[in-house]
From TrEMBL:
Keywords: Signal. The keyword Signal applies. Residues 35-296 form the Periplasmic binding protein domain. Transmembrane segments: none annotated. This is Substrate-binding domain-containing protein. GO terms for cellular component: cell envelope. It is found in: Cell envelope. It comes from Deinococcus arboris. GO terms for molecular function: carbohydrate binding. InterPro entries: Peripla_BP_I, SBP_2_dom. Its main location: other.
Length: 321
């Protein structure tokens, strides 16, 4: 496997995979583009930060951004992309809500002569392929994120080994991969046990409700691993409602790295957070310009993400989104 580093928009990115021969629509080199951005939802700080980064960079470069918000609906996001195809935008940035239902519409865009760049979430490679149906995927290594959380837990558990897992949106690549990465490490450490695992849909209130139910059903639980900050923050409320101390009686682990969650690491109610950087704008538009200029891209362009621990969270708080 080829692994090289590329700097896009001032951000160091890890390129993984074999560089692909492009069989995609051509994109003319122009000063400005009319580009679609199909967002999956806007109900949490991570998505708001991602959208702002895309809008800010488009504005800085003078591009017209055709923005849509699927409001958590896969069907609407499919319709949003089809609308962009009908509008004949120059290219489409897509954060797919689910990995399978969005694959056909990605192929529709390619057939219509519109290149697609995937942001944050990938699609099922059995249904659509990088280099043929879309340019590349830019985002984090979700499996590695789950592994990093589990590895930190193994080293820092101090006897707390009974785990509740709050999963993300069913069918989404982050939920699938963050679960796989975490569960794979836990299986290799038999002193740990996942007592229950259930979706909280990446939402704060749903995460709170699910955590409350699972804590009641599993009174020996002393670790909660949430696939994102919103569910982790909801879990903190559930732990307090159960009369226990988050971060002390029950270890809380998360992925995303929003300012609110990082502050909770500083305060001690969340123990560890792996960052998933939402600031895609510079890298996304740099990739678009490079593609137009004929640059070849691998199947995945991986963001370099940091983490937040009790030792470094205070220093990193100012740069969190």
């Amino acid at each position: 496997m080829k692994r090289t580093t590329m700097v896009l928009g001032g951000v160091a990115l890890l390129l993984t995979g074999t560089v692909l021969a492009q069989g995609l629509p051509k994109l003319a080199v122009k000063k400005t583009y009319r580009v679609g951005f199909a967002q999956t939802e806007s109900n949490n700080p991570w998505r708001l930060a991602q959208t702002k980064s895309m809008q800010d960079e488009a504005r800085r470069l003078g591009h017209q951004l055709v923005y849509t918000d699927a409001a958590g609906s896969t069907a609407k996001q499919v319709a949003d992309v089809r609308s962009m195809i009908a509008q004949k935008v120059d290219a489409i940035f897509l954060s797919p809500r689910e990995d399978k239902p969005l694959a056909p519409v990605v192929k529709e865009a390619a057939k219509a002569g519109i290149p697609v760049i995937l942001l944050d979430r990938n699609i099922d490679p059995a249904l659509a392929k990088a280099g043929t149906d879309y340019v590349t995927f830019i985002g984090s290594d979700f499996v590695q994120e789950g592994q990093r959380v589990a590895n930190w837990l193994v080293k820092n558990a101090k006897g707390k080994t009974n785990i509740i897992e709050l999963e993300g949106t069913t069918g989404s690549s982050p939920a699938n991969d963050r679960k796989k990465g975490f569960d794979d490490v836990i299986r290799k450490n038999p002193q740990f046990k996942i007592l229950a695992s259930q979706t909280g849909n990446f939402a704060r209130d749903t995460g709170r409700q699910v955590a409350e139910t699972l804590l009641q059903a599993n009174p020996t639980a002393n670790v909660i691993y949430a696939h994102n900050d919103e569910m982790a923050i909801g879990a903190v409320s559930a732990i307090r409602a159960a009369g226990k101390r988050p971060g002390v009686d029950i270890i809380v682990l998360s992925i995303d790295g929003g300012k609110e969650a990082v502050q909770m690491v500083v305060d001690g109610s969340i123990n560890y957070v792996v960052e998933c950087n939402p600031r895609f704008g510079p890298a996304a538009f740099k990739t678009l310009a490079g593609y137009a200029a004929g640059q070849k891209y691998p199947a995945k362009v991986i963001n370099a993400d940091r983490d937040y621990t009790p030792q470094n969270a205070k220093a990193g708080l100012a740069s969190a989104y």
